[in-house]
């Protein structure tokens, strides 16, 4: 009888030792081992929005120390012109150096209502075949500082650049549909949806002088249903910084140097 009692006590002690009570070290280990690990802090350097790029740029210019290094961080570090081998320095590297030096020395910042342009590539279905419509846009501002995008120029798909322009006379004016920046500011989904719904460039082209022959070619194809918008496939943003024009592109990758970064620049 005593032997049986001792055996039961031993079994109880063994089971009790395997139970993880709240607050115990074993319990903590058990909780962490089953898909409940706290997320690590990383990718904090990503620039998700163009407005965030402008803020980072102005913050870099305002630094007392490390101003030039902070400005260099706003460029695409994987650009082959910067990482090329062979010992020959690409002119682009010197160009960036001149830009950074001038901006840092003169403390040039980007204004709250900057002159901003964009070039978007929109995948189109043209009579059953795919091609790309290139749309040049510029940002406008209202008196109360609201912003919108409007079409400044269009480049027809390469498959029909020689198509005859029609409908030179404007028909009844359609409701204007300016393009408010969406969550990502420049993916131009409102433009894509608008072209699909209106079947016209007119609501998004407030500049009548912008309606050249190429514009009418695209307008005619949209209205006849020959040209069907499908997706925005590319976009670049252009900002003026002092005497420079910088190009921003979105780099989607798993590293700190990602998001909206400077992909090119030119002195004007």
Q: What is the alpha-carbon Rg in Å?
A: 29 Å
Silhouette: elongated
For this entry, what is the oligomeric state of its chains?
single chain
SSE string, helices as H and strands as E? HHHHHHEEEHHEEE
Q: Number of helical segments?
A: 8
Measure the end-to-end span: 100 Å
Largest sheet features: 6 strands, antiparallel
Describe the structure.
The chain is built from eight helices and six strands, in the order ααααααβββααβββ. The model is unreliable at 12-40, 161-176 and 180-184 (pLDDT under 50). The termini are far apart. It is of the alpha+beta class and 268 residues long. Strand 2 and strand 3 (147-155) form a beta hairpin. The chain has two domains: 50-108 and 242-267, no CATH class; 116-238, no CATH class. It has a six-stranded antiparallel sheet with strand order 3-2-1-4-5-6. Residues 1-17 form the signal peptide. Keywords: Signal.
List the topology elements:
Blueprint: H1 2-18, H2 25-32, H3 50-61, H4 67-72, H5 80-83, H6 91-106, E1 116-126, E2 129-141, E3 147-155, H7 189-198, H8 213-223, E4 227-241, E5 244-251, E6 259-267
Brief overview:
Keywords: Signal. Residues 1-17 form the signal peptide. With 268 residues, the chain is an alpha+beta fold.
């Amino acid at each position: 009888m005593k032997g049986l009692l001792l055996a039961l006590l031993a079994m109880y002690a063994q089971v009790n030792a395997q139970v993880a009570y709240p607050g115990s070290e074993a319990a903590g280990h058990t909780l962490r081992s089953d898909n409940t690990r706290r997320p690590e802090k990383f990718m904090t350097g990503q620039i998700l929005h163009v407005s965030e790029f402008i803020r980072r740029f102005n913050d870099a210019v305002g630094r007392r120390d490390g101003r030039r290094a902070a400005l260099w961080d706003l460029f695409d570090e994987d650009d082959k012109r910067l990482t090329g081998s062979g010992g020959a320095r690409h002119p682009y590297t010197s160009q960036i150096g001149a830009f950074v030096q001038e901006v840092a020395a003169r403390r040039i910042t980007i204004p709250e209502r900057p002159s901003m342009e964009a070039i978007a590539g929109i995948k189109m279905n043209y009579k059953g075949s795919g091609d790309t419509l290139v749309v040049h846009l510029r940002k406008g501002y209202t008196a109360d500082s609201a912003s919108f995008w409007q079409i400044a120029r269009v480049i027809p798909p390469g498959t029909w650049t020689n198509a005859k322009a029609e409908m030179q006379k404007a028909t009844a004016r359609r409701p204007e549909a300016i393009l408010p920046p969406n969550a990502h500011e420049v993916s131009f989904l409102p433009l894509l949806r608008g072209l699909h719904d209106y079947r016209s460039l007119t609501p998004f082209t407030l500049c009548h002088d912008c309606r050249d022959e190429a514009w009418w070619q695209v307008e005619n194809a949209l209205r006849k249903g020959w040209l069907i918008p499908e997706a925005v496939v590319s976009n670049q943003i252009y900002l003026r910084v002092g005497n420079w024009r910088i190009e921003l592109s979105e780099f989607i990758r798993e590293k700190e140097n990602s998001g909206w970064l400077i992909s090119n620049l030119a002195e004007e």
